[in-house]
Amino acid sequence: MPPIRAVLFDFGLVLSGPPDPVARGRMETILNTTHPELREAYWRHREDYDLGVLSGVRFWRTVGAELGHLPSDEELAQLLEADVDLWTQPNQPMIDWATALQSADVTTGILSNMGDAMEGGIRARFPWLALVRLSALGNVQIARKFPCRRLAVRIPERLFAVRKNSRGVRFMPISLLSAKVHSRS
Predict the structure, then answer these.
(1) Residues 51 and 66 in one domain
(2) Which domain holds residue 29?
(3) Could you give the count of Cα atoms lying within 13 Å of 147 in the half-sphere of its Cβ?
(4) Angular region, 116: left φ>0, alpha ψ -120 to 50, beta rest
(5) Staple 85 to which of 4, 23, 156, 175, CB 3.0 to 4.6 Å?
(6) What stretches of the chain show up as alpha helix (H) in DSSP?
(7) 34-51: pLDDT as tens digits
(8) CA-to-CA distance for 140 and 162, rounded, in angstroms?
(9) Is the pTM of this model over 0.85?
(10) Same domain, yes or no: 78 and 105
């Protein structure tokens, strides 16, 4: 087997643990809604947020309007913070492995769908991300697939990433031909 030269990690449910129910509860309280209602509105607009079609502020205004509660500026700040809290419970064994790879001079990267405020919040929360040599955390306009064609690096013939699926965390091949590309125009 050839040596590992680079490892690309998904963020959600790989480098982070499951969503934090306390953060979700704060969102529900701010928007005066139930978990099922929030989940439906949240995921209906999340892809546009991840793609950069909606900013974090616009995302939460859209979700709030759909739920009948247009958030104030103060509530928007609280929702953006709660959303980062929702997705930043660390998965310490995977973070430790990423750090060990970096220490062994293996290129590491994160390829994950996330919007502007989410990326900023995650970078601020985890200083070890400064050590990630290859990063495409957002603003790549590609959803649900890894944006390999957008990276300014030479991609090897066989590329695998650490992703979470229904069977747990796995090494999964990345298909350069299956990305769903969106334009901001």
Answers:
(1) yes
(2) 21-86
(3) 23
(4) alpha
(5) 23
(6) 21-30, 35-51, 56-66, 73-86, 92-103, 116-125
(7) 999 999 999 999 988 987
(8) 19
(9) no
(10) no
